[in-house]
Amino acid sequence: MGSLCKDLKECYTTKKLLYWSIWWALATAGFNQVLNYVQVLWDAKAPSHSSQVYNGAVEAIATFLSSVTSLAVGYVKMNWDLTGEMALGIFSALDAGSLLLMHFTSNIWVCYASYLVFKACYMLLITIATFQIAISLSMERYALMFGFNNFVALLIQTIVTVTVVDSKGLGLDIGTQFLIYGSYFAVIASFVSQRATAWSIFQFQIILPAESNLHPILEWP
């Protein structure tokens, strides 16, 4: 047990790994929450007993697009150390916008399209996050961090469910729930965008001049 705690402490003392892990846990909790309740939202927008729905087909397309998106990351020639945090901010904002649109629209097709964008963006980002964490750790420590991040995500999801969905909590209707989920991802996007902006300033003011002068590159704090 002592060795396990020591390994966890060493994994999360690196600010880069801690940052990516925070996003992982928060975003995965929100993603799983949306997956659990999106069918309820679709039924509220277009009841299955009174209209023709394509929920199953949309889920299949979303899974396919997510797979393509995840595979595409491996073929994109980008330095994710430099651009990964900006990607987190941009695509987390897209996730937030997609969920808010699902709340405000009454058109089931717009709802479907927003869900496709949401799932594809999340799978893109979780692939980048997994890569960024994996390259910094041994296989054993990566497995430990993977399990712990998902445990934290499950804990956050449980808190959100009890607070937002459960009748003992707020017991909100499904439309308002998605307003909450959209706002949740907007907070995530705001958090990562602030750090990404600071990182960009740091990069252009310190790292690039250092590279041009062949000086050692400073580590981002």
Automatic annotation (TrEMBL):
<dbReference type="GO" id="GO:0015234">
    <property type="term" value="F:thiamine transmembrane transporter activity"/>
</dbReference>
<protein>
    <submittedName>
        <fullName>Thiamine transporter 2 isoform X1</fullName>
    </submittedName>
</protein>
<keyword id="KW-1133">Transmembrane helix</keyword>
<feature type="transmembrane region" description="Helical">
    <location>
        <begin position="88"/>
        <end position="110"/>
    </location>
</feature>
<feature type="transmembrane region" description="Helical">
    <location>
        <begin position="142"/>
        <end position="162"/>
    </location>
</feature>
<keyword id="KW-0472">Membrane</keyword>
<feature type="transmembrane region" description="Helical">
    <location>
        <begin position="174"/>
        <end position="192"/>
    </location>
</feature>
<dbReference type="Pfam" id="PF01770">
    <property type="entry name" value="Folate_carrier"/>
</dbReference>
<feature type="transmembrane region" description="Helical">
    <location>
        <begin position="54"/>
        <end position="76"/>
    </location>
</feature>
<feature type="transmembrane region" description="Helical">
    <location>
        <begin position="116"/>
        <end position="135"/>
    </location>
</feature>
<dbReference type="InterPro" id="IPR002666">
    <property type="entry name" value="Folate_carrier"/>
</dbReference>
<dbReference type="InterPro" id="IPR036259">
    <property type="entry name" value="MFS_trans_sf"/>
</dbReference>
<feature type="transmembrane region" description="Helical">
    <location>
        <begin position="21"/>
        <end position="42"/>
    </location>
</feature>
<dbReference type="GO" id="GO:0005886">
    <property type="term" value="C:plasma membrane"/>
</dbReference>
<keyword id="KW-0812">Transmembrane</keyword>
<comment type="similarity">
    <text>Belongs to the reduced folate carrier (RFC) transporter (TC 2.A.48) family.</text>
</comment>
